[in-house]
């Protein structure tokens, strides 16, 4: 008598994609064996995993499809037996140094069109969204804190971007980190992916990402942001991405102390011992990050304040200071989505983060400034 089958199941590797490649050589079957074995929950290396003969045969006989190309790593198992379902769900117990997780969820029947998309190396955004939608729906049904309502529609938030503003009497500034990997190098706001096993909310994601990226004495997120103004979460939809259906920006106001401590044209972060720089990562470094609890990944080496160039009641640009002294990236270009978000939401941000007296003083300053160029103002400010 054949064992009863259950609906299709899928495994999504959130933040674990590179562990599978760097440590297990891309072997899904080895990952399944680790989950089904008596190995420790925290996986630090490619350990010998012992499973019984029936379990091993259940793993070997699975009919599965693996997503390709730029699509996040997804394994879809067609019509698994009850034993196979049990084996698959055991993967969720595993833990990794990257704080990621393997999530098991039901997946719809695979039409011929969906099969082709799963194994395609090149996918358009709508096609990738079709592949990922079952995962998004599953997460939101259990963890509604990741849902953001925008224009009457609900989107899953999968990242958080930190907008740390210093609002002065004459000039306003926003904090950037140097992103050496994208667009040939550019200045961008700190931020990164939601880590569901660690973060409790988008504010938690923003705090963790800031603390991981902006490295300096007393630079913790809840230290450098003003306690007088609660952070604002602003959803942004301009970019088209299946992996990030909406970009949540977490806007906070910086303290005077943080602004003054980082006034160099380029601020070099203080890198901890055993750190591995992302910009110079080699294959053995990536593997070390998965296997050595002492290893730390440093994503950014430099930070700077970009002055917000105003035009009337709006924003015309973000001005990164050119280097005249010291070291650091010479480039002054910034990420276009960051500027676009500020331009679209600046009026609301000012109303909520600037006190009424400051708004009145700024309005008077703007009127008295006449036609002088904002680009000629010095790179300073005062609370």
Automatic annotation (TrEMBL):
Protein name: CATSPER1 protein
Ranges for region Disordered: 357-383
Biased composition (Polar residues): 374-383
Annotated gene: CATSPER1
